[in-house]
Fold each of these.
Amino acid sequence: MARTIIQELDETVAFIRTLHSGKPRVGIVLGSGLGHLTSEITIEKEIPYEKIPNFPVSTVEGHQGKLIFGTLNGQEVVVLSGRFHYYEGYSPDQVVFPIRVMKFLGVETLLLSNAAGGMNKDFKVGDLMIINDHISLFTVNPLLGKNHTELGPRFPDMSEPYDRTLIKKAKAIAARLQIPVHEGVYAGVTGPTFETRAEYKLLHIAGGDAVGMSTVQEVIAARHTGMLVFAISVITDLGIREEDNIITHEEVLAAASAAEPKLTGIFRELIAEL
Ligand code: HPA
């Protein structure tokens, strides 16, 4: 008989426990071109994804593909350095598997970053947007299919996917560090195409301030299991630009790494307060 997701999670966590016994309460997922936060971590253990049973393996340029355990600003953390995207061909179950592993490892709060296209007219390339809500209807819900009550309820509440207390703390930190931040709605799409002009327009009219190809499935899985979530987008391109609107992956990665120190500053301080 095929194994259940719970059996797979138990096997994966048992394997990780043979290599590392830490119990981080904070999990971090870093987006494309945003992996440098790991250089601030006092690393205790790094496990390449390909060594971990049941883990998918990351393929996108700019992703390192390892699970990192260590301490950041006094807080024990586990970091997914390199995430899994639906557009790579992974099933939604695979995309969120590492998030569920984090839960089984004891993680209570999940911090995520991503690169996103700006649609709000006030946004510029390099700006940060704290995500205060999302639109996931243009992606595949990772909870479709049989529900495992060990993970969470059949019909999870989504009235506050991004924890308001964490948003408040992050805004206070950003003000203290004199880092300007926007707040807004992240529209999740599957990619891998960037949006057409008409699609950017639609997503903006639908209420999106930024658009990206990750995060929403992970957040849904995290909220399903009761984790608190905080997420920031780095605006790497402007979807609403009228002319000369060719967007490349290279441009996205370059803008992400240029803006990264601001993001790292906020994450570093927020982590100490968790
Ligand atoms: N659209 C979708 N995903 C993205 C974008 C975008 O403009 N920029 C970075 N990731």
Note: The chain is about 30% helix and 25% strand.
Amino acid sequence: MNTHPIGVFDSGLGGLSILQALQAGLPCEDFIYIADSGHAPYGERDDAHVIARSRAITRYLRGHHDIKMLVVACNTATAAAIDTLRQEHPGFPIVGVEPALKPAAAATHTRRIGVMATRGTLASARFQTLLGTVDQQAEFICQPCDGLAEAIEHTVSTGDATNLIALCALYSGAMGQFGHETGQIDTLVLGCTHYPFAQDHLCTLVGSSIQLIATGEPVARQTKRLLQTSAMLRTSGSGQLKLGTTGQAGLLQAAAAQWLPWQGDVESLSIA
Ligand code: DGL
């Protein structure tokens, strides 16, 4: 058993959707979550920016918190930076997040699947390789969703969902018709960790019978497997959580109070 915390990071609030699943699946583990809101969004930035930020946060988490494992709770950062992180930290366990194309291919009946993700994720070689493993099984309609992660964060900070709803309508509409008839999309992959927090609006737009597929639970299962095989899984402990941000502490505070069983102070960080 290893009682060190697990590090988790995202460009902002989105990784909290992964943290929710991690806390549910690994209740004895301690977590430290970093929202890199001061350098967000990642999805419309170049790879060099995302790699530099991912390296800096990983160094910080290992250096200041002696984490036993890292979960990159961001599809965009996984696509751009996970290979670099693994090369720079050999032997250190790192779990990433990828759009759930395989589960979607297994779930669809109409064989038409919508994929919402950031521009960076969809353009990445990693995503294209993943797509190549399943594109014989179904047709994937890939929709870059510029501004959607920011609109989700804006809604948390102001309570105003006008722009969020407009963007959800724009992007779901652009993918085509949703439904269960031949030629319609019956399965929607949420390929950015922010998007589960827009799930209610998306459901209203595409219809509640459409399957929305996110990645929190598979990531939690994979994290647990890795901890078990390396004899690091905690079997006792009350599960402590620390939150830090490179952006506004109040924003992460508000989101965590809304989405997690958590109360406390968010640490303001400058991670260079
Ligand atoms: N949450 C991130 C992801 O899963 C991206 C959001 C952003 O563009 O920063 O891709």
Note: The first helix runs from residue 16 to 25.
Amino acid sequence: MTDLIRSESQPQPGAETIGNIECRAFIDGRFVAPVNDGRFDCINPATGKIIAKVASCDADDVDLAVRASRRAFDAGHWSRCDPEFRRRVLVRLADLIEQASDELAVLETMDTGKLIRDSSTLDIPGAASVFRFFGEACDKLVDETVPVGPGALATITREPVGVVGAVVPWNFPLKMASWKCAPALAAGNSVILKPAEQSPLTALRLASLAAEAGMPEGVFNVLPGFGPDVGGPIGLHSGIDCVGFTGSTEIGKRFLGYASQSNMKRIWLECGGKSACIVFPDVRDLEAAAKAAAAGVFFNQGEVCSATSRLFVHKNILKDFLPLLLQATQAYEPGDPMHSDSGMGAMISEEHTERVLSYIAKGRQEAELVAGGNRILLDTGGCFITPTIFLGAAPDSVIASEEIFGPVLCVIPFESEAEVVSIANASIYGLGASVWTQDLDRAIRMSRALHAGSISVNAVDHVDVRTPFGGVKQSGNGRDLSLHAFDKYSDLKTTWIALGKTA
Ligand code: NAD
């Protein structure tokens, strides 16, 4: 771990490792230089320093990885093995992630600027638990026999789809990779993972851990690089049967286009959000609701797809609620992400910081700024924004309707249940929603009325490996996590056997 931190203070020009972490592509069971020898700088957004030179892959590397993946798939060592073997390898991989968790947490924090506290207690253990869950599940799912009468035997069996592309974002790099790769691998597919260009390091480390866990060559490949260079060719390659994508709605739509221009590969999308948190006057503990509302938008610098960035507060409690919210917000003062007492870390990049600041500038015209609104700690060379709250934005204003993906909250008063349902649903997104009430009937009515993939009642954004996660409308299709994730990465085969005379 100290090696990793030392590598940043003394970056090696052109270095292809950070500490002992490989920064080349991982294809067919080994680390290799990209075909066209491209590299890009990997930057720590909390310091602005280069931490590594990472392989910048392109369409030629995608083609190599697809060939290796297909060879592995056709050989059947993984795709047609006894699933007990897949279980052992994936559970071993979960163990290895846990053993390497300190190193992975430091890598994740250096790469993204997120708090080390969160990397080490949430991101890395979360990724391990996802590999463990899907590993454990792979030899426990059973196929179906259909009651079709004595003259035939009809079975429905699951088969892996083939070669799966996994294209993931930078906000939870290892966790998002696990959400795609674990179910796809457990179902018997070969996988090509493309991490975001802002955060490739833990994906590369995952490749070496997968090899150590005993995953056969070619089954798992990692191609770092830029979206148009690697993500585009993955979307367009006719040797890829399915893509699991997490990222923006804009790029998600491009993947639908890639599929239509190539082989109609199936595209599963987890995209943007603008989730609502709704606080009714009968909430039991106003302070707990205020703390949760702050966490719902400021956790991980607000770089969370399901962040509850629209907070609807009933007008009768707004006067009491707002001071509690402002107090809770003080816990999110940004600072060095490696320090345990920092409340938020750094934003992912200069570019994204500018984008969030431009939304804040717009917000100053559209609503009343009641907290934050500044870039701070400029002397660190890092990208830090204070937790920001706007009051009274019109529901259809820019800051209350577009995904900002930063620590920016819009507080909007409401008067009636019908009104808040209608405003909350008037969004192109539908990822999550949170409802605070003690009235059971109201909780159930709201859960049924809100257009979102997950509803948390008296909690915000509750995510669990055993329950599905995903959205409706332009937040995406399909679901990550839970046993339902297997559906995305397997095909159903019907076999109908006409029987001879039965006794
Ligand atoms: P992004 O869409 O810019 O990038 C996501 C991935 O797509 C990256 O790997 C990127 O390199 C790749 N990509 C970029 N341009 C591409 C192109 N032209 N062709 C093919 N691939 C391309 O998103 P981001 O900025 O990395 O992440 C933020 C977004 O992700 C937010 O909108 C957020 O809501 C969303 N997100 C959604 C979920 C979810 O589960 N719904 C989870 C996390 C993040």
Note: The first helix runs from residue 2 to 9.
